[in-house]
Amino acid sequence: MSTVLARIATVPDEPRPLRADARRNRALVLTAAQEAFAAEGLSVPIDEIARRAGVGAGTVYRHFPTKEALFTAAIIDRVERAAAYARELSEADDAGAAFFEFLAFLGRENGVKRDLADAVGSDRLATVGASADLPGAIGTLLRRAQRHGAIRSDIDVDDLMLILKAGFGATREADERQRQLTFAVILDGLRRTES
């Protein structure tokens, strides 16, 4: 084997850095996708995202082979920020208030940004990765609030995620009053009652 072929055979496959124009196009697509998914949820067509980004659909597919891949890339930052907020609240002195503040935050986000609601309401969070462990961060808030007697003890994080999924789904087309009422009822149902 020639030394050139031997060298090629031993060089690991590393992703090549994107050219400046490709980086710019990728950033344009991600920004457009974040805005479109936040406004319309996962139903927004790829062609609409490409139009908003000012690129062709082929450029979108060159960077993101499927809509799921694009959604995952677009939601990672938002999910990571939500998880970071939950972790920040887990240090609060009042565990019950911190838990309810985080759920109120999710309710507000659901009112204006459907992408996070789509992610919470599906198995997509598992594809985002450990760095955006939103269910884990929510679970920490839940367990702390339960230990402090603010939240009923008969639910776990899977139950809570199902409740959130139902709330997000039920209020997808609701007006703001209906959305607030729905989440107020959900929050009241989570409170520990004296028996």
Note down, in words, how this protein is organized.
- This protein is mostly helical and 195 residues long.
- The protein folds into two domains: 17-65, Arc Repressor Mutant, subunit A (Orthogonal Bundle); 77-190.
- Helices cover 71% and strands 0% of the residues.
- It contains eleven helices and no strands.
- The chain has helices at residues 3-10, 20-40, 46-53, 57-63, 67-89, 95-112, 114-120, 125-128, 134-147, 157-170, 176-190.
- α6 packs antiparallel against α9 (134-147).
- The radius of gyration is 21 Å and the shape is elongated.
- The protein starts with a helix and ends in a 5-residue tail after the last helix.
Q: In terms of topology, how is this protein built?
A:
Blueprint: H1 3-10, H2 20-40, H3 46-53, H4 57-63, H5 67-89, H6 95-112, H7 114-120, H8 125-128, H9 134-147, H10 157-170, H11 176-190
Helix pairs in contact: 2-3, 2-5, 5-6, 5-9, 6-7, 6-9, 6-11
